[in-house]
């Protein structure tokens, strides 16, 4: 009887683990998530911020979104990726706040032995 309970518990935990990992795979991609991901690339690689205004870049994002099956990023044939102004006034400050929080916590951890 105890063995069956243990097997049932193990199967339940396994099912919960599978559900937790697959839920992310089926979650729709939001435009803000794409914008944040590209902002990380732009900042890390020191790319020009006007890259997001480049028609070929925007076309590549549209094709990627279309191939991935995400409809959230497309409005007709145009991608919902923000242009340079929004990227620099909204997305970049949000990324900066995230980085400051994580780096600040690490620095405070090193300062307090």
Bin the strand percentage: under 5%
The biggest beta sheet reads: 2 strands, antiparallel
Rounded Rg: 21 Å
How many strands appear in the DSSP assignment? 2
- Total of DSSP H or I helical runs spanning 4+ residues: 4
Strands ordered across the widest β-sheet: 1-2
Q: Whole-Å distance between the termini?
A: 50 Å
Helix content: over 70%
Low-confidence stretches: none
Describe it:
The chain is mainly alpha-helical and 113 residues long. It has four helices and two strands, in the order αααββα. It has helices at residues 2-26, 31-44, 55-68, 84-111; strands at residues 74-75, 78-79. It has a two-stranded antiparallel ribbon. A hairpin with a 2-residue loop joins β1 (74-75) and β2 (78-79). α2 (31-44) crosses α4 (84-111). The mean pLDDT is 76.
Summarize the structure.
The chain is built from 4 helices and 2 strands.
Write the layout of secondary structure elements.
Blueprint (H helix, E strand, L loop, with lengths): L1 H25 L4 H14 L10 H14 L5 E2 L2 E2 L4 H28 L2
Antiparallel strand pairs: 1-2
Please name the defining characteristics of this protein:
113 residues; mainly alpha; two-stranded antiparallel ribbon; 4% strand
